[in-house]
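Bumping my old thread because nobody answered last time. Still need a sequence for this structure:
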């Protein structure tokens, strides 16, 4: 199997971190997003919406969406558990992960796309929307700050996919000048912990 990857993009990075945590080796094939290689007929056949990452299994089956790829590997190798082991843990991790994806990860992405014009050759950036998305992302840091004042990790006492996605989003957010400040002591404590894990270098 292999994964079509872009080293500089946040969504593929969370898959690499997830697999590094599980100790699963993988062949990564780099796709140049800036050149639009992800939009080629070959890549569209693997993922019609042209997004990266894409996992291609040995039989040619393709799975796209970073969280879905992680779910596949969680199901085939449960340990270490990154998506919950009991019904309650699974629901809580899924809840926090969805919130991180919707209100932080996704908003950072929209801020980047609409503020920088990086993909203006294939979309119509709306600068005002980028500004709003950036404010939304920065506002969600308050939610995470409160949460991390009562919990070691975002979804509870154990490191999970919610932490992986938040880390990738926070690192990428620096590109659009969304950064932690003195107002985020709990987030800074958490960030120091998760970014020092060996998998964060994946």
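Sorry it took so long. Here it is:
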């Amino acid at each position: 199997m292999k994964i079509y990857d872009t080293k500089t993009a946040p969504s593929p990075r969370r898959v690499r971190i997830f697999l590094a945590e599980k100790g699963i080796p993988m062949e990564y094939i780099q796709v140049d997003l800036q050149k639009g290689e992800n939009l080629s007929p070959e890549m569209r056949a693997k993922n019609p919406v042209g997004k990266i990452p894409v996992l291609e299994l040995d039989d040619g089956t393709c799975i796209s969406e970073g969280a879905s790829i992680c779910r596949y590997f969680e199901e085939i190798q449960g340990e270490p558990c990154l998506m919950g082991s009991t019904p309650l843990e699974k629901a809580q991790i899924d809840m926090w992960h969805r919130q991180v994806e919707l209100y932080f990860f996704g908003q950072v992405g929209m801020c980047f796309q609409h503020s920088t014009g990086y993909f203006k050759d294939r979309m119509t950036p709306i600068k005002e929307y980028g500004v709003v998305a950036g404010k939304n992302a920065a506002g969600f840091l308050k939610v995470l700050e409160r949460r991390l004042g009562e919990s070691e990790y975002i979804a509870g006492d154990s490191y999970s996919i919610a932490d992986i996605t938040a880390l990738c989003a926070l690192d990428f957010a620096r590109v659009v000048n969304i950064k932690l400040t003195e107002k985020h002591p709990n987030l800074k404590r958490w960030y120091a912990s998760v970014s020092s894990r060996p998998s964060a270098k994946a």
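Strands lie at 2-5, 27-30, 54-56, 62-64. Let me know if any region looks off to you.
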